[in-house]
Amino acid sequence: MSHYQHLTINDREMILESLAQSKTIREIARKLKRAPSTISREIKRHMSKNAGRYSPDKAQNDYKFSKSKCGRKTRFIEDPSLFQRIKHLFLDCQWSPEEISQRLLLETGEKIISFITIYRGVYAGLFDKPGLSQGNRGAIRKLRHRGKPRHNKDYVEKRGKIPITNTIHERPEAANKRTEFGHWEADTVAGKTGQSCLVTLVDRKSRFLIASKATKKSSKPVTTELMAMLEKIGKSNLKTITPDRGKEFSKHVQLTDLLGIPFYFPDPHAPWQRGSNENTNGLLREYTPKG
């Protein structure tokens, strides 16, 4: 299996800076932990004809173009009108890839394109405007997580450990398959100052959202607010809760003792296991100003 990684825009800017400092090919290669042949080939391929020097912009744009041409052709390339429609919904209307895919499904009655294919197009640079400045992340910034890097599988959780009574793998099938009401996902959305937050509950079957403001994103105020929300929902409509693994939910045992509702925690770094809440929180962040 090949472990080769393509040069990033940051790598390419480092090459330009090093060349300006009269660094040798081998010095640049050591700095980037790459083979000297890789650096030499990169510089030769991407010399600007007008300026007569290495251009990170040209290199990155050439890479994106080559990547869009390689492998299996996407629906974007096969159907220009479909591409323009998706581009309008994504860039102008600020719809997420999930929303676009579902809208096309509702309009046509068939699965025109998957949201994964749309994400692939975004990351391949198919939606980027030409002539982006160095370091510009392009259309990726339109995504709800703003194109910020996610933690990799080796990331160590630093927020502390909380008592886990049940895992998501023990959750009832009715909750997993969304066949009945009353199975909720819980999370928090941080405020502008990082102090207050929104506590959110989303029913897995109906996607019905309830949100309430807590004075601080810590266990005591979040538990108090969550208790008030659950009491309004009523015990008859409470079967399970699947929260985030944050410390703000560390007092979940108190809620179980008082209301008899079990909590089922997802695996670490697995936001897709709470897809309803993650997507709804994205909509809240997009359409509700922080404060």
UniProtKB/TrEMBL annotation:
A Gene Ontology biological process in which this protein takes part is: transposition
Which Gene Ontology cellular component terms are annotated? cytosol
Q: Which GO terms describe its molecular function?
A: nucleic acid binding; transposase activity
Cite the residue spans of the region called Disordered.
271-291
Q: Which InterPro entries match?
A: Integrase_cat-core (IPR001584), IS30-like_HTH (IPR025246), RNaseH-like_sf (IPR012337), RNaseH_sf (IPR036397), Transposase-Integrase (IPR051917), Transposase_IS30-like (IPR053392)
Provide the alphabetized UniProt keywords.
DNA recombination
Please report the stretch or stretches of sequence annotated as the Integrase catalytic domain: 168-291
User: What is this protein called in UniProt?
Assistant: IS30 family transposase
Q: Which organism is it from?
A: Ligilactobacillus ubinensis
